[in-house]
Amino acid sequence: MSPIVGSKQAEQLKQDGNSYFQKNRFGAAIDAYTEAITLCPNVPIYWTNRALCHRKRNDWQRVEEDCRKAIQLDHNSVKAHYYLGLALLQKELYAEGVRELEKALDLGRGANPGSYMVEEIWEELAKAKYLEWEHESTRRSWELQNLKESCELALKEKHMLDSSQIEGLVDENSTSLLKQLEAVGKVFMRAAEDDTPTEVPDHLCCKITLDIFRDPVITPSGVTYERAVILDHLQKVGKFDPITREPLYTSQLVPNLAIKEAVHAFLDRHGWAYRID
């Protein structure tokens, strides 16, 4: 079979797979994509299409395998990094999953910043960062509790040893022990404060949606909005700033890089320490 004929057959099989997918016939779609891969194994989209079918069937091991192959063929495949990130999260490899989702988000914003997939990836990344924080928080809390108990036990053992060696100072030693245990408790309480969920500051949230900024833009009047929200307002409501009522046009919107960096800093520090429903 000539390469041209094989390529045409593979493309037809991909179209067949797409048709099956639309009808929720994921098994048939997988078979079609697999045949396309057999004919043309170096086409990344065949692998990511099949990975999406595996995702629909919650077959995350195969999702990971197909995505890794797609990335070998195309390092800039948004879907491959995205689906791989989701698969890694299912394995509770949170740090690796977050890195893949961040890669997918960066690639998606560069290729098509207004696409629905960029928004979807951003939301999944936010959830992933929370899961990563929650996992690390649980681990650190367990370690802190064990360390606290070890310190308390050591202090009590020292108190018993001192009391047995020094007669007549039992009451004094008991008072000292209580103070030491109280001090230890305060130290560990302060250490645990870093793992307390934090509310998002108001200046990091859009004044319309009240949600944390994803793609903040600033208007000439100095008000910052979520880009998608203000664009929707300008298109459907009118060419004016919804808060100041000043005339406003799309060309006047400027990315608010300071707020964007502040959002990233907040997420990095607090691990997205609140739920997104």
Automatic annotation (TrEMBL):
BP term (GO), one: cellular response to misfolded protein
Protein name: E3 ubiquitin-protein ligase CHIP
InterPro entries linked: CHIP_RING-Ubox, TPR-like_helical_dom_sf, TPR_rpt, Ubox_domain, Znf_RING/FYVE/PHD
PANTHER family: E3 UBIQUITIN-PROTEIN LIGASE CHIP
Ranges of residues in domain U-box: 199-273
Originating species: Nicotiana attenuata
Pathway annotation from the record: Protein modification; protein ubiquitination
Record field: catalytic activity: S-ubiquitinyl-[E2 ubiquitin-conjugating enzyme]-L-cysteine + [acceptor protein]-L-lysine = [E2 ubiquitin-conjugating enzyme]-L-cysteine + N(6)-ubiquitinyl-[acceptor protein]-L-lysine
Alphabetized Pfam families for the sequence: TPR_11, U-box
MF annotations from Gene Ontology: protein-folding chaperone binding; ubiquitin protein ligase activity
Gene: CHIP_2
